[in-house]
Backbone:
């Protein structure tokens, strides 16, 4: 346990020495990176020691604050959330050395590193906290450091706005969490977390609803995702990777941990989460398709993946309600593995998107093009991440989605219960997968393939090794999980057993055997592709590439004539127009010799821009009316109010 | 096991190009022509094999990865499905998901290879391919759900087992009929046949698959062609097994029955191509959503 505490201290304080160093010096950032790496090494040591020694270590100290003891516990459930956290934090901090060097960003480099360390340390603390107060402290430090990470470039107006929306959202969520933990302590009698499966179900509905709101806000379940796209787009890329890959998972952790405390789970909990997961998944990916800012697009994909994770969690909860241990195991294993997987491939995508932004100087996908020739390594890394996030074999995304699919097929065995409706999760997941594939074909194809669409893209340069190597390490872990999934099953089994309070719960042997087959098929696929590629590449090696793409007879093709990100998504966006309501401006041509015309399309956020902003604007308008007509600063009117009140009171008492 | 694998691959690799020949012959017969010889696809493949490559200067290695994965995926996927009564060489619980997602992988790289040329023409094809396929994906899953419910297993080998005979005779027969229609639509779409796509005209603005592979040449184009016929055979095998669920007990007659079924399927595709016109593009999603509704209906029937 001492390792974990050391790790927390080292990571949290990594940015502090930098505060005392000069604004232009290089030493402080290297020191911060070193401290972070040392801290993650300590943390990894703590997790592996805990897993080797039966899966659980405890730190329990007396505490002078009211509300229980200072208790930290490292159990398999926390370990699954901690492992990707350590990886992403370490890789992001190396990446930051070249992506956000102090010399190029003297104004905000120190701030970025300070809060990068703080948020990482706070997340480790809250993932291991066994006390509500400690958990909420970690939660608040994480939320506030998140705000400062998002507003790193606070001289930009849109960054400040994204920060404000995030701050409002996260504090609304925290408010709900205060209520959750207050009710929880009433139910269990202390502020310490109750043991798994110990709470009675009576009076739990309100706890669940508050927790769903608070944790769902952090996780970004639709319709609570309003803060997410803007915030992840505004932060520097390695901070976005941390926020999107790891921070939003603390919401999922909260839900998983909270539901593990109850002895019985009412069926409606599972149904609610399953439904929210389906909606978030489908709408999240549809909204992502409609974006042309690469970081906003990736942020919406986080909403989608949170939806997939919620589908798994919903199935697991239904398994608890209907007493199907197999469904619990498959749903929860899929959910937890997808948490780790999404942390890995989303970080790859954000980090390589950072390299692209660094090279081209724009976040617009339509300003890229042909980057694969200029950034070959970034291209390979991005392609790996894109295939993984689309859930395609032989990468890790497929393994977790495969587990959730198996879970979704299980209720088919039921003969006469509502549970059979849960099979609808499978086609929903298929639709999400198909749309995600379309979206990543679009991003990869438009940015990396074809001809450069701007002068900056034509002059782009490859990212330095300090940015490529950490991203590559994350990709290696993705490939490892995809090709050798059985190495992770013991950990998943321990977590499932921990969550569902059944000592021998876990994935059935049949599933494990099948996982072995899946990995075998993955290897076979790689082998086939390798043999065929070797043959065709060696045969075509000497062929010159000196002619242009055939333009169907047209002699003067230009890069501007290529398909753009918007035109690629147009077909699907139009199919989803009932929920997206994209805005289209211009594009009408008239006459035999039409003049120059412009066309632009834009898809605002469904909840924020369509619902919340108009609603709050109406409220503001109402208050403005009140202010101008009633409380407008004219003294005579105020005197009139006083007189009227006196008259009313007199009249009242006269009767 | 090993013999089974060899037999499986031999049937697939040898007979797949024949299907295209039968379709073309049927269409020619309907039009009152003699048509290309039955073995034309084999000649085409041999011709493409000998040819050289032509590459645009825009393209990268992704351009060649498209054909490679387009050929590797149907090869691997064919090992997961039974060919008629011949059991699948690789079978495990949950292989149906792998089967569906493998085709997703090939779609990803085919579309990426199309975008690699930088031609807006191929961009159009890529968009249509990914759009239509993602609409067909739920249909496929609903069909698999129906079959899983009827068989109780989760491997394609169990799904297409002998119990289908009794299922056809029971109340579930109606559902099986519906999902056969759905799978046929998916087959026509995935193999880019009329009414979703017209494989004959390369240069119409309405094409899907053919424009995506417009810039490929020589052996790479041969790989695409071969991959496409393998895919048709693999998807067709599902339909054939659904329609002919009997086991004869002797591998030679099983194989013959399976191949006869495939030939009939090819003739049916040819007939559909001859008597139907290609759908207008905005109609295609409507047809696909309609098919999804049919498959949902089939699922409701068996869940009742």
Residues:
């Amino acid at each position: 346990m001492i390792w974990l505490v050391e790790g927390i201290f080292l990571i949290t304080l990594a940015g502090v020495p930098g505060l005392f160093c000069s604004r232009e010096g290089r030493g402080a950032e290297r020191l911060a990176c070193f401290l972070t790496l040392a801290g993650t090494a300590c943390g990894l040591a703590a997790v592996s020691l805990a897993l080797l020694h039966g899966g659980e270590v405890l730190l329990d100290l007396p505490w002078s604050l009211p509300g229980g003891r200072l208790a930290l516990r490292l159990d398999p459930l926390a370990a699954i959330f901690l492992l990707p956290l350590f990886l992403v934090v370490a890789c992001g901090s190396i990446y930051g050395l070249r992506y956000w060097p102090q010399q190029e960003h003297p104004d905000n480099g120190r701030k970025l590193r300070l809060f990068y360390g703080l948020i990482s340390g706070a997340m480790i603390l809250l993932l291991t906290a066994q006390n509500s107060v400690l958990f909420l402290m970690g939660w608040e430090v994480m939320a506030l450091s998140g705000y400062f990470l998002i507003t790193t470039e606070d001289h930009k107006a849109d960054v400040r706005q994204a920060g404000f929306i995030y701050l409002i959202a996260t504090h609304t969520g925290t408010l709900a969490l205060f209520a959750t933990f207050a009710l929880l302590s009433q139910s269990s009698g202390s502020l310490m977390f109750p043991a798994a499966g110990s709470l009675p179900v009576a009076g739990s509905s309100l706890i669940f609803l508050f927790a769903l709101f608070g944790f769902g806000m952090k996780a970004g379940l639709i319709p609570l995702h309003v803060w997410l796209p803007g915030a992840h787009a505004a932060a520097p890329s390695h901070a976005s990777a941390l926020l999107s890959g790891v921070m939003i998972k603390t919401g999922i952790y909260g839900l998983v941990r909270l539901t593990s405390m109850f002895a019985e789970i009412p069926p409606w909990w599972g149904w609610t989460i399953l439904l929210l997961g389906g909606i978030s998944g489908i709408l999240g990916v549809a909204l992502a398709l409609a974006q042309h800012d690469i970081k906003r697009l990736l942020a919406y994909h986080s909403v989608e993946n949170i939806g997939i994770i919620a589908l798994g969690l919903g199935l697991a909860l239904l398994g608890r309600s209907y007493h199907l241990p197999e469904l619990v195991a498959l749903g929860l294993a899929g959910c937890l593995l997808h948490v780790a997987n999404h942390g890995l491939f989303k970080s790859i995508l954000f980090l390589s998107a950072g390299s692209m932004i660094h090279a081209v100087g724009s976040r617009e996908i339509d300003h890229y093009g042909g980057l694969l020739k200029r950034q070959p390594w970034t291209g390979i890394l991005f392609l790996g991440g894109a295939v993984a996030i689309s859930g395609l074999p032989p990468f890790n995304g497929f393994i977790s989605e495969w587990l959730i699919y198996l879970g979704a097929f299980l209720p088919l065995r039921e003969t006469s219960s509502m549970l059979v409706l849960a099979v609808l999760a499978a086609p929903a997941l298929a639709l999400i997968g198909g749309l995600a594939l379309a979206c990543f074909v679009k991003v990869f194809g438009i940015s990396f393939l074809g001809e450069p669409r701007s002068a900056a893209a034509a002059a782009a340069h490859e990212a330095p090794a300090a940015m490529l190597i950490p991203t590559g390490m994350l990709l290696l872990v993705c490939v490892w999980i995809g090709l050798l999934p059985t190495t992770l099953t013991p950990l998943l089994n321990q977590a499932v057993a921990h969550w569902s309070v059944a000592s021998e719960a876990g994935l059935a042997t049949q599933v494990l055997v099948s996982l072995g087959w899946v990995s075998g098929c993955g290897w076979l696929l790689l082998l086939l592709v390798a043999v065929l590629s070797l043959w065709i590449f060696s045969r075509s090696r000497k062929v010159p590439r000196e002619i242009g793409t055939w333009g169907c007879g047209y002699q003067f093709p230009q890069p501007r004539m290529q398909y753009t990100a918007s035109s690629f998504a147009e077909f699907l966006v139009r199919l989803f127009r009932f929920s997206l309501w994209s805005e289209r401006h211009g594009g009408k041509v008239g006459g035999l010799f039409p003049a120059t015309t412009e066309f632009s399309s834009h898809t605002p956020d469904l909840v924020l821009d369509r619902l919340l902003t108009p609603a709050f604007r109406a409220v503001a308008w109402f208050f403005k009316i009140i202010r101008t007509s009633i409380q407008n600063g004219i003294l005579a009117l105020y005197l009139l109010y006083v007189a009227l009140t006196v008259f009313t009171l007199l009249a009242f008492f006269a009767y | 096991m090993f013999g089974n694998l060899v037999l499986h691959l031999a049937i697939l690799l040898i007979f797949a190009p024949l299907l295209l020949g039968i379709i073309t012959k049927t269409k020619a017969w309907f039009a009152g022509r003699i048509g290309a010889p039955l073995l034309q696809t084999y000649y085409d493949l041999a011709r493409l094999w000998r040819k050289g490559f032509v590459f645009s200067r825009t393209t990268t290695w992704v351009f060649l990865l498209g054909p490679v994965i387009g050929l590797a995926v149907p090869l691997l996927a064919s090992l997961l499905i039974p060919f008629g009564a011949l059991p699948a060489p690789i079978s495990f619980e949950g292989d149906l998901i792998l089967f569906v997602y493998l085709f997703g992988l090939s779609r990803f790289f085919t579309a990426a290879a199309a975008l690699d040329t930088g031609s807006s023409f191929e961009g159009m094809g890529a968009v249509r391919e990914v759009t239509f396929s993602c609409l067909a994906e739920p249909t496929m899953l609903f069909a698999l759900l129906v079959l899983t419910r009827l068989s109780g297993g989760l491997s394609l080998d169990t799904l297409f087992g002998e119990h289908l005979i009794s299922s056809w005779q029971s109340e579930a027969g109606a559902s099986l009929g519906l999902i056969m229609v759905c799978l046929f639509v998916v087959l026509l779409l995935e193999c880019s046949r009329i009414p979703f796509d017209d494989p004959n005209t390369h240069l119409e603005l309405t094409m899907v698959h053919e424009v995506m592979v417009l810039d490929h040449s020589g052996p790479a184009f041969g790989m695409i062609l071969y991959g496409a016929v393998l895919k048709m055979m693999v998807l067709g095998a599902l339909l054939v097994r659904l329609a002919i669920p009997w086991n004869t007990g002797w591998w030679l007659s099983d194989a013959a029955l399976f191949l006869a079924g495939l030939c009939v399927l090819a003739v049916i595709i040819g007939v559909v191509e001859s008597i139907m016109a290609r759908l207008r593009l905005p109609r295609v999603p409507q047809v696909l959503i309609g098919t999804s509704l049919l498959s949902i209906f089939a699922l409701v029937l068996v869940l009742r």
In short: Chain B has one domain: 2-303. Chain B has a mean pLDDT of 91. The first helix of chain B runs from residue 2 to 31.
